[in-house]
C-alpha cells in the first residue's frame, strides 16, 4: 500500500492538527510546534498505524507522547510528539537516555530532538506480541529463539549500563520485530533504580504471560522452578557467567 505524506506546514486544521497538541491545545501552540519540528528537518507526515486518536491513525501512544510516521527528505522517521497533558515538561531526559543506549546499539537511533519532539529511526515491523500471535506450533522455532536471544542480550547490556527500561514485564508492546529486533519506548526508563531488564523480559517470555503460552507451543520452555532458580542466580550475581547460564537453560 502506497503511503501518503502531507507537508507539516499544511497540517493546521482539525482533526489532523490535533496531533501537535494532543489531547487539546491552542492555534498558537499548533503553529509553534510546526515551526519547532521544521527546525529538526522534518518535512512531512503520514497518518497511518494500528492505533487511532479520534479518526487519525498513528504508530503509537503513551502517557508522555504519541508517535507518527514522518519524512526527512526521502528517509522515513518515527516522530514522538509530547502530549499537551504530559507530566513531563520536555523530552530532554528521554533524548539523553536514547543517546546513552544508542552507543551500545540498543533502541531506535535518535536522529534529532527538541523540547516537544523526538525524531527517531523508523522501525518497519510488528510489535512482538503481534508477531508471536502469528506463530504456529513447530513453526519458526529457530527464528523465535534468535529473537528471544537478541532481546535478552540487549537487556543484559542495559543491566550493565545501569539503565532500567521499566516496562519489559509487559514485553509484547515494547519490542519491534522486523529486519532487526529492537527494544522501544524508553519513556519510563531510569538510571536511578535497580535494574531488572533481563529478569523482567525472561519472565515475560517464559513464565505466565500471554505470549509465554504461545511461545511454549513453539518450543519447550524449561520448568518454572528451574527458571526461577537461574533468574535468582542472575539477579544476585549479575555476571556474564550467570547470564550465559540463563541462556544455556533456555537452550539459546
TrEMBL record:
Gene3D superfamilies per the UniProt record, alphabetical: Transferase(Phosphotransferase) domain 1
Keywords: ATP-binding, Kinase, Nucleotide-binding, Serine/threonine-protein kinase, Transferase
Organism expressing this protein natively: marine metagenome
EC number: 2.7.11.1
Catalyzed reactions per annotation: L-threonyl-[protein] + ATP = O-phospho-L-threonyl-[protein] + ADP + H(+); L-seryl-[protein] + ATP = O-phospho-L-seryl-[protein] + ADP + H(+)
Molecular function GO terms recorded: ATP binding; protein serine/threonine kinase activity
Keyword Nucleotide-binding applies: yes
Annotated InterPro entries: Kinase-like_dom_sf, Meiotic_Drive_Suppr_Kinase, Prot_kinase_dom, RIO_dom
Domain Protein kinase stretches: 53-252
A UniProt-annotated Pfam family: RIO1
Protein name: non-specific serine/threonine protein kinase
Annotated PROSITE patterns: PROTEIN_KINASE_DOM
Amino acid at each position: 500500500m502506497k503511503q501518503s505524506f502531507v507537508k507539516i506546514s499544511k497540517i493546521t486544521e482539525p482533526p489532523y492538527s490535533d496531533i501537535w497538541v494532543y489531547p487539546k491545545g491552542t492555534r498558537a501552540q499548533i503553529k509553534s510546534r510546526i515551526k519547532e519540528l521544521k527546525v529538526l528537518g522534518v518535512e512531512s507526515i503520514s497518518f497511518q498505524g494500528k492505533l487511532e486518536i479520534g479518526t487519525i491513525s498513528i504508530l503509537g501512544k503513551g502517557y508522555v507522547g504519541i508517535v507518527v510516521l514522518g519524512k526527512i527528505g526521502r528517509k522515513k522517521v518515527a516522530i514522538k510528539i509530547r502530549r499537551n497533558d504530559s507530566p513531563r515538561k520536555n523530552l530532554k531526559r528521554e533524548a539523553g537516555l536514547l543517546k546513552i543506549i544508542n552507543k551500545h546499539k540498543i533502541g531506535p537511533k535518535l536522529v534529532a530532538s527538541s523540547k516537544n519532539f523526538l525524531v527517531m529511526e523508523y522501525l518497519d515491523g510488528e510489535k512482538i506480541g503481534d508477531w508471536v500471535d502469528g506463530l504456529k506450533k513447530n513453526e519458526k522455532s529457530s527464528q523465535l529463539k534468535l529473537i528471544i536471544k537478541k532481546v535478552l542480550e540487549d537487556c543484559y547490556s542495559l543491566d550493565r549500563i545501569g539503565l532500567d527500561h521499566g516496562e519489559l514485564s509487559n514485553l509484547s508492546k515494547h519490542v519491534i520485530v522486523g529486519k532487526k529486533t529492537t527494544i522501544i519506548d524508553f519513556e519510563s526508563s531510569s538510571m536511578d533504580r535497580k535494574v531488572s531488564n533481563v529478569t523482567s523480559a525472561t519472565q515475560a517470555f517464559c513464565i505466565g504471560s500471554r505470549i509465554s503460552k504461545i511461545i511454549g507451543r513453539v518450543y519447550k520452555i524449561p520448568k518454572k522452578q528451574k527458571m526461577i532458580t537461574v533468574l535468582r542466580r542472575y539477579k544476585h550475581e549479575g555476571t556474564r557467567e550467570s547470564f550465559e547460564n540463563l541462556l544455556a537453560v533456555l537452550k539459546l
